[in-house]
Every structure is written in structure tokens, then in C-alpha cells.
Amino acid sequence: MSKRTDSNAYTIIFAMIMVVVVGSLLAFFSSFLKPNIDENKRVEKQQNILYAMGINDNDESNANFISSSFAGQEFSKFVKEQLVLEVTDEKVTKLQTREEYMDTNNGQEPYLIDVKQQQNHAKEGKARKLPLFVGEKEGKTFYVAPIYGKGLWDAIWGYVSLDENMVIQGAYFDHKGETPGLGANIKQRYFMDDFIGEYLLTDEGDFKGVTVAKGNNDPKNERKTDYKVDAIAGATITGDGVTAMIKSDLQLYVPYFKSLKN
Amino acid sequence: MALLSKKDAALLTDPLTDNNPITVQVLGICSALAITAELKASIVMAISVMAVLGVGNVVISLLRNIIPSKIRIIVQLVIVAALVIIVDLILKAFSYELSKTLSVFVGLIITNCIIMGRFEAFALGNGPWKSFLDGLGNSAGYGIILIIVGFFRELLGSGTLLGFKVLGDPIEKTGLYAFGYENNGFMLLSPMALIVVGIIIWVQRSKNKTLIEEN
User: Fold this and answer.
1) Residue B148: which of B9, B13, B17 has the closest Cα?
2) Is residue A25 part of a domain?
3) Which pTM does this prediction carry?
4) Which residue of A38, A46, A62, A237 is most buried, as measured by CB atoms within 10 A?
5) Most B CBs within 10 Å: which of A22, A67, A157, as the mutation test of the B interface?
6) Pick from B137, B162, B148: which is nearest to B11 by CA?
7) Hey, are the CB atoms on A14 and B66 less than 8 Å from each other?
8) Radius of gyration of chain A (CA)
9) How far apart are CA A151 and CA B73, in angstroms?
10) What are the beta bridge partners of residue A81?
């Protein structure tokens, strides 16, 4: 039995119409919703930075951001300055304040700098812009730096807040597509809180970073100067990714922190 | 009068037991391995698949007479992918928190063989209402297995359920841990999902011998 739908001409026409219809539907939704989605992402970055500074709605065991409706207000209240650094040969060669950066970059806020894009710039030999957010809370100064790397399946990123001695004061990690229940747990409090108080520099001032280590045998994370935190079972590659992005990205800020001391 | 005829009701209930998509049809194993390390992820995945399969089955069923048979698999894939991506975009715009929870599942839903399997086996040959029921029934059957596997993997692997420490604190050594109990890290790895599914299949077939295939 030959049906109308079996002919080649019908098949090709159907495929063409389907592609056009589905394609335009997706394009329509994507561009129609883009302003809302971008706004959500912008607020999320503010929430991330505030989270790393310890401004969050955490309950006993869960990590919660402050509500998105307050994020903008709290962000301008606590984040006093957004610096943009350029570092060459272990020296800070350029330091822009928020106003200076916005004047030269069409009014783009420094916290919207795409870290991945800047990493690519560095690979191409161009100058990499390093955003650093200076916050103040209860008389204490926090320096929040964004980091970006790769986990098992896709991108992972985070914000780490430091004091003048590069001791970690808070950390927020997130991921695009790590395995739920395993690698995805890097954004759980029991993992992120372990970083608080960890040292990044040795006594001599050399950068060591923090390693996500298996068999660290310190589940309560009492040793703060061992440059190690406990790994998550079943999430080795994601943990290695966290170690690597802390090492590669936070190291770049060392010259700035040294310049603070002089 | 009953809400559903006997035949329609069977579409809903059969996949829960004797025609279960995972344990009998052996579909959707890959996602059952990937996301059952914790109970919450299993529940989220079960609900998402139910929504996608329910709607997708209806759409395919409505289009069943105009889809060219030569490219029907591609058409099914395009439809389910478009549906999932549109829902994801809407969630990103209006319910960002929820979308962040679900984003990992988007890829897994599109490639879930239960969805393609039900489109192919049922929706292409049946009306929209029956297809809708079939979609709900099969995703419920899939969800039940997911939740059972997730329950055991989270309980034995992490000692928690939905994030609550039901067995005590492994670090402070309270509850069961005070007696020397330890979490079994192996439960968190995907091979154990397969073994748990295997045990469920074993239990089910020893209860219902008609499911055992003759060699």
C-alpha cells in the first residue's frame, strides 16, 4: 500500500517546513526572552559575589542567595569598589577603578566581565582583564575574585573572597552540567564552607592554592594551613577542576595583594 | 460511570508494574544511572519526564497522519528537542532558580529513550487522549523505579534522604555512625544503579513468572 506520506517529494517538503517552523519558533522564544534571561544572569552574578562575602540567606545546611529583589540594593551597599587589573610579569601594570573602566567600555559594569573571554584573550597573548571586587562588611575588607574552569562535563566557575593576606573568607562555586548528586555537590554548603579560612600563600608568600584532595583525612577541616580540603566521593574530576581553577586564576591576583603590603 | 474505561486505565497502570519501561521494556537505563545518586534529582527527573512525555505524546499523536514514515525518528527528535528547549527558555526567563535545578536534565530528557520509544511504539499509532494516558503511565513507571533507586543510593551512599541526615552525622559520629556504621561510597557510583535496577528486576520477575523470557 502506497501512502501519500511515503513519497520523496512529500518527505522533503515536510522536512523543510518543519525546519522553518521549529527554527523560527526557537529563534522567536530565544530573542523574545533574552532581556529577561540576561537580567536574571546579571542579578545572579551580584548574588554570587555577595554570597562569597558571606551575605546570604543560608539556613542550617543549605546555601541560599539573598532574594533577587534585594540583590542590587545590597550589592551597591556592600561592594565599595570594582577594580579591573592587568598583570604582566608578576607586576600590576594597570589598575582601573569602576568609573575608569566604565568610561572606556561603554558603561559596562566590571562585574559583568566575561572571565572565559578574558582567559581566551590571555591565550591569544592579549592582556587579560582581572576584575576584583572590594567589599566591606562589619569593618572588614573582602576582596572577591571570579574564577572559571572546567569540570567533568562542562564549565565550572566560582567567586572566592579573600582578605589582605589571601586567606579565603568565603567561596561560591557553580557548574553548568556536573552530575547531580556527585560533581554538582560543589555548590553544596558542606563543600564550599570547607574553603573558609584556608590559606593560599605559604609563609614565604609563595602561592600554593587549595587542593581538593582525596584521603585528606580531615573531614571537619580543622587544619587550615594544609592547602587541602576534603574531596567529594565520586566527583574526582570535578574536584580536580576546582583545584585547577583556583590555582590558575587566583594566582594572577598575587601581585596585587603584594602591592597592598608595600 | 468510571472516569476512564478499563482499557484506558490499563494504559496508566500497566507501565507501573508488568510493562514497566525500565525493568521490562529496558528503556531509559542511561538516565537511571546518571541521576539517581540522590533522591531529589530522581524526583525532579521523574516530574520533568512526565511533563515532556505527556505533551510530546499528544503532539506526535496529533501529527501522526502527516509525519512521513521515512524520517519519523528525526521528526520526533526535533519535536521533543524543541519542546524541551522552549520550556527551558521560559523557565530561565521567569523562574530562574527552578531552571538552574533543571538545566542538567534538559540534555538527558531529550535523549531519553523512553520518550523516543513511546513516540515510536504508541503515539504514532493512537489518538491523542490514549497517547496522553500512555505518556503519563510510562513516565510514572519510569519515575517509580528512579525514585526507588535514588532512595537506596542516597540512603546507603550518603546516609541522607532529600539532604536530611536520617542516619546521623558521619563526621560527628552520631546516630548509627556511633556504632561503627559507614556510608558505602560505592553506592554513589553508577555501577550500583545498574545493580539496584537488577535487583528490582529480580524481585519483580520472581513475583510474576510470566515476565521471564524463554530461551
Assistant:
1) B17
2) no
3) 0.79
4) A46
5) A22
6) B137
7) yes
8) 22
9) 33
10) A134
Nearest to A240 by CA among A253, A251, A231, A249: A231
Q: Enumerate residues 6+ apart whose C-beta is below 8 A from B11.
A: B130, B133, B134, B137
Average pLDDT score over chain A: 88
Q: Per residue in A88-128, pLDDT tens?
A: 877 888 888 888 888 888 888 889 889 999 999 888 888 88
Domains of chain A: total: 1
Note whether B37 and B157 are within 8 A (CB). Answer: yes
Distance, in angstroms, between B196 CA and closest chain A CA?
17
Work out how many CB contacts closer than 8 A connect A with B.
91
A202-216 pLDDT tens trace:
888 889 999 998 877
Domain that holds residue A198: 48-261
CB nearest to B171's CB, from A5, A219, A234: A219
Which residue type is seen at B206?
S
> A144: helix, coil or strand?
strand
Q: How far apart are the first and last CA of chain A?
A: 88
The alpha-carbon gap from B152 to the nearest alpha carbon of chain A, in Å, equals 13
Domains of chain B: which residue ranges?
21-207
CA distance B24 to B213: 10
ipTM rounded to 2 decimals = 0.77
Cα(A189)–Cα(A192) distance, integer angstroms: 5
Q: Which residue carries 555501577 as its cell?
A: B191
Residue A183 covered by a domain: yes
Q: Specify if A43 maps to a domain.
A: no
Residue length, chain B? Answer: 215
A244-to-A52, A98, A169, A215 alpha-carbon distances in Å: 19, 28, 19, 18
Contacts of A126 (CB under 8 A, 6+ apart): none
Q: How many helical (H) and strand (E) elements, i.e. helices and strands, does chain B have?
A: 8, 0
The model's pLDDT over B125-135, given as tens digits with 9 standing for 90+, comes to 899 999 999 99
By CA distance, what is B43's nearest residue in A?
Answer: A180
* B187 → chain A, closest CA residue: A234
Q: Quick check: A164 and A260 in contact, CB under 8 A? A: yes
Q: Could you tell me the three cell numbers for A68? A: 533577587
pLDDT at residue A5 above 80? Answer: no
CB contact under 8 A, A14 and B38: no
